[in-house]
Amino acid sequence: MESTLDTVLVALSPEVTDETADRLLEAAMRAAGPADATVVLTYVLTGEEFLDAAERLGHPNAGRDDADEVLADHEDVERLGATLDEAGIEYVVDGAVGTVAEEVVAAAGERDADQVFVSGRPRSPTGKAVFGSTAQDIILDSPCPVTYVAATSE
């Protein structure tokens, strides 16, 4: 049985450093490029972060329904989009407001993603038990395979 790769989702948030975002994108491009798949840059902000970003990016009256448009103007998304443009890989931006794990899993389902790329920072077993893990929640709840890309040490 032949499997195809049409849609690859990259999970992003303010917690993801530039270096880690670059590593996530490189991994996603290695999968998406040869398959001629579309990369979905899914950038998730909390409500307060979204309002701040909307104001800063020149969208002062933006609401949740405008998240795609607002976050397409975000400097991190523009930088990653330029890398995808240079590589000739098609991409779209999914902006979301809420919790990262819930929004990424929802976007993967809505986009019928074939693969999700996510990162996370190293945590102790106690830290995982007490605070949970966004990457773990995405891995467990995703409707498709998830590739974990380790975050860079800071």
From TrEMBL:
UspA domain location: 6-149
Pfam family, one: Usp
InterPro entries per the UniProt record, alphabetical: Rossmann-like_a/b/a_fold, UspA
SUPFAM superfamilies: Adenine nucleotide alpha hydrolases-like
Family affiliation: Belongs to the universal stress protein A family.
Protein name: UspA domain-containing protein
Lineage: Archaea, Methanobacteriati, Methanobacteriota, Stenosarchaea group, Halobacteria
